[in-house]
What we know:
Elements: E1 6-9, E2 20-28, H1 32-40, H2 44-47, E3 63-68, E4 75-84, E5 95-102, H3 104-117, E6 121-122, H4 127-134, H5 140-151, H6 155-165, H7 168-192, H8 204-222, H9 225-231, E7 233-238, H10 245-253, E8 271-277, E9 280-286, H11 296-311, E10 314-320, H12 325-335, E11 345-349, E12 362-363, H13 372-388, H14 399-417, H15 421-439, H16 445-453
Parallel strand pairs: 1-6, 7-9, 7-10, 10-11, 11-12
Antiparallel strand pairs: 1-2, 2-5, 3-4, 4-5, 8-9
This protein binds guanosine-5'-triphosphate and magnesium ion (MG).
Residues 241-247, 260-262, 264-267, 288-289, 349-350, 352-353, 365-367 line the site of guanosine-5'-triphosphate.
Amino acid sequence: MDGSTIYALGTPQPSRAHPGALSVIRLSGPRAADVLVFLTEPGAFARGRSARDPALPAPRRMVLRTLYDPLSGEAIDRGLAVWFEAPHTETGETMAELHLHGGRAVVGAALEAIRRLKLCRMAESGEFTRRAFEHGRLDLTEAEGIADLVAAETEQQRRLALQQMDGALHRLYEAWRTLGLGTLAHLEAAIDFPDEDLPPGLAQGVRDGIVRLQEGIGAHLADRRGERLRDGVHIAIIGPPNAGKSSLLNLLARRDAAIVSEIAGTTRDVIEVHLDLGGWPVVLADTAGLRESGDAIEQEGVRRARARAAAADLRVLVLDASGDWKTVQRTLTASTENWDPARDIVVLNKVDLAATEAVDTVPLSARSGAGLPDLLTRLERSAGVLMDEGAGAPPLTRARHREALAEAHASLGRALVAPEIALAAEDLRLALRAIGRITGTVRVEELLDVIFRDFCIGK
Ligand SMILES: Nc1nc2c(ncn2[C@@H]2O[C@H](COP(=O)(O)OP(=O)(O)OP(=O)(O)O)[C@@H](O)[C@H]2O)c(=O)[nH]1
Ligand SMILES: [Mg+2]
């Protein structure tokens, strides 16, 4: 931080095609309030009046003001102005905002007017949030929550991001650090006072603390909900050739993503589409029909289909209801061996040709769309079941956190088998440092640069 005052357009840059109704320019830093006065009080800049001017509205009160060019005195726009007094602001610094009309010329002239004052400079991407972090207004996981909230595309992503922005991960990781620090204090006491009658090796209380920490981190590392929310719940459509798998994919995607034909063995490669299923981001994969015969390319397709089915979070088996019923039954039994009925789904397709029903299956006509609402409900429920596992604790959301936690987990493992107390203490310290890197308690400059560079300008 350089003590400078920064400014940026906080709303999207208006274009000819997309002018906005409103644009918001925000400022942060010691001169933010001065800028408001100099831009809204004609002649104030020339007279060099300061921010303690009567022209300055009460903090946190929005006022209607005309915005003037500080040099020419020409009116630019009329809008709302507000300022916030440090330190209880988003960045921890004095802040100001101008809410203007969202035209290209308005925004251009307003930004130019601010520039002409030569009191502040354009913000870099993420600089507002970085200042908030530097002033202790939030930790790194909360800052990342803000970035995720801006990037969230589905309801569930939004919910998770909001939780993280509100400190869910911060509290979890800080609780671990507190537990670790307490344990470390006991270990260090044992090093400093070796003559006391301490039992050999690690005292039970210390061992319990380390084990508890390691188990907590282990469970958190095993929880894949965050990844699924970020990258999508993986659903594989599988089944015999010609059952209507590609038709189902197209129906759910509402476009012709996959080729449909009456020739068995049409689909070879895995075809993916991204969907929003009741707020869950989903990656839906269509696969080659499962059968033994066929050429070498089709067999490769079948191999990929099986691999995808095994790796998927959920499976949808599509069967042709108009086909030979015995074959359908046999395929059903053979394909659902490792089935989880709470999540995986069997679809009986082509019920327009043969009105068939069977327990625990969803009747569908991929051609007419009949049965689609029920299938959607089932899919949403399955995704819900999947994402409910381990609910309560906030999920791990970033590779950066995973890396640091894996490191902490390994260090704790070493601490438990360390031949000397001093070595155990050192391993525990390493684990705590790794956790501290996630929240930013342990600062790593290059890491900060990377994290905040990913933000948009004005955030
Ligand atoms: N009548 C009827 N025909 C359907 C239905 N669903 C799919 N079909 C037809 O069944 C044939 C096969 O459909 P696809 O979607 O290509 O089947 P697939 O399972 O992807 O087949 P492969 O890629 O070869 O494994 C096509 O002619 C579709 O038009 C349905 O619900 N009713
Ligand atoms: Mg197909």
